[in-house]
Every structure is written in C-alpha cells, then in structure tokens.
Amino acid sequence: MKKLLLTFLSVMPLAGWGQNLAQSDFTGVLVPQYISNGNNSNAAVGASNYPGPRLALVFRATVSNLTANTAYRYYVQAASQTDIGTTASGAGVLLMVNPAATTAATTYVTASTGSLSAAGQYGSFTTDANGAYTGWFALVNSNNARFQTPGTALFPSITLATDAVPGTIVARRALNQSVTVLGFVNAAGAANGTLLTGSSSATPKNLVFTYDNVAGTGRPLSVGLVESVGVATGTVSSTAGPTVYAYSTAAGAYTAVVPNALANGVRRVEQRSIVDNSIVGCASDADGTWPSGANTVNPTGGAGAALVLTATDTP
What we know:
Helices cover about 5% and strands about 35% of the residues. It is mostly beta strands.
C-alpha cells in the first residue's frame, strides 16, 4: 500500500504540470515576425499612448502529441517569456478561424475573453491519425501590459480542452517561435513600426503576407486580413485626435504593420488561401519602391502617415 501511495503522489504533480504553459508540441509553419501594439479602440488609453489600430496576427502552426482522431476546443493568446511554466495563457483578443471547404464558407469569430465551455469563445479542430492538427490560428492585440512595450518578444499560446462540457483544460502550449511587438512611431528605431495599407482584388477572408525579399523566403514580416472578413477585429479608424489613420474594410483591402528598420523595404506582397495555405497570387518589387511611388525602405510614418500600396502595386 505504501508503494502504491508513493507512486500516486509522484504522478499527481504531472497533471498540474501538464496544464502549465509549456513550449512544446506547438510548431510554427508560417509565422509573421511582428505584431503591433496599436490600441486606438480604447479611447482613454490607446489614443494617447498606443496610436494606431489593433491588427490581427494570423499564423499557421501544427499542434502535435494529442490523442488521435479526437476533437479539441481551443483559444489562442500571446504569452510573455515569464508566463512559460505557469498557468497563465497570456493575453489578447480572441480571433478564431473556422475553416471550410471554400473561402466564402470559412468564418472568423472574435471574442474578448476565452472560455472552453461557452459557445463563441473557443475554436475547434479534430486531430489526424497521428494526433496532430495543422491549421490557421489568430489573435488580436489588446491593451494588456504584454503588448505595451515595443521590442517585447511574445509567444503565441494555445489553451486546449477535449470537446466536451464542461471544457476542462488539458494543456497550455507556447509556440516555438516568437513575434516582436512594434509601436507605431514616426521615427527610426528597431522597435518602431509603420502602418501599411493596401488595395487589391484579393479574395475576402484570405490572407496577405509581406516580405523583405522578392522570393518570399524566410518568415514574413507581417500579415493582413483581406477584407471584408465579416467581423470587426478590434480595429477602429481615427479621423481626428493625436493620430489620424485609416483602416479600410472595403473588398480586397488589407492592413498590416512593417518595421521602420527595413533596409530592403517591402519587396513581396503575397496572397494565401485561408482554406489550404496555397499561394493565390503575389506582387513583387525589386527595390522596395513600388510603381505608385510608395517607398517602403526604412519607413518612418508610424500610424499617421501610412504606406499606401495601390491596386496597381498589388493587384
């Protein structure tokens, strides 16, 4: 009996550890390098301290080492280095991607907080025969302190439960790649960023990725949703106040952040399918100065003087 009790006690902590945020079994496939800290959707805080719109971070990743052929519930946030090893999942506005057979049938759902029991506050997926799932995951930055210091490295995190009621957390995992927070500032600086807006004939609900090379190699700089996606992602356009900027939800419009320390400029803008990650189309420019005259090399526009790519630049 004593031996059995000791064995039981030695196993008990493992269940708790399994629910701590661990950097394992969550592997990036296509992960942008940067996320913004814009927060003009909070007039009291964002307009003065964190100018610019909130922007979605969408990335592709694989969740592995789960039970085969099993449905899971999840939500995604962003965690700091100090969250790893604790029961904290991080912070951020939820944006769930519900994949379908077609782009038009794919839906986005947003929520301010995550719950693995309340409908509308979690996404779902089913693992394959190997206990893995590869797909798109997303979040939107909030006014939480994790997003307030430009230059901070954050790790997208996923909180998981089996598809049952109540939703009991079975794991918290941090991605193996980090994203860097950029503040919208109209000056040079490694932690500063500039708003990039574009027009195109891209298919709404797909994704646009920006690169600093024409081949599209390495990790993309940033990502933008191709509007209209059917939900507000926390973005609010400001036409007055300390920082004037625009976020368009017109068909084919996209909005992203790019770093001000960008010697090559933006040299490739690529549309990817939200259904299967295929490259639908792309446009490139050899020197970062696009046909419309938009010069994306080492920009200093912040949120108030966005880089504007036209439908001629990125059809």
